[in-house]
Amino acid sequence: MSAEDKICDNIFKYIESNKNLWIERLREAVAIPSVSATAEHRQDVFKMIEWTEKMMTKLGISCKQIENSTQTLPDGTTIPLPPVIFGTLGNDKNKKT
C-alpha cells in the first residue's frame, strides 16, 4: 500500500467513525430554512450565519462577521443582506500566509 493509499484509508476511517456526528450537523443545518432568495426566510439566513460561525469557532477558527449591504425587493422594500463570515485559522506571524 502506497503512502497516498494509507492517507486515504485513514481519512475514510475517520469519516466513517464520525459519520453520526456529520449526519447530526447536517440535520441541524438543513433544519434552518435559509433560502436567501425569499424575504420571509431572511431572518433564517441570519440564523444560519450564526450557526455556521458557531461551528467554525468550535473548530478553532477565529471568526468575524462583516456587515453587508441591503437588497431592494421588486415591491420596493429594502431588507438587509446577511453578513459575510471572515474566518482565520492560525496566525503564525512567521508564516507568509
From TrEMBL:
Nucleotide-binding as a keyword?
A: no
Going by the UniProt record, its keywords in alphabetical order are: Hydrolase, Metal-binding, Protease
What are this entry's molecular-function GO terms?
A: metal ion binding; peptidase activity
Sorted alphabetically, the Gene Ontology BP terms of this entry are:
proteolysis
Q: Which InterPro entries match?
A: Cyt/Met_Dipeptidase
> Which ranges of the sequence are coiled-coil?
none
Keyword match Cytoplasm? no
Note the Gene3D superfamilies from the entry. Answer: Zn peptidases (3.40.630.10)
**Domain of life here?**
Eukaryota
> What is the name of this protein?
Uncharacterized protein
Q: Which organism is it from?
A: Meloidogyne incognita (Southern root-knot nematode worm)
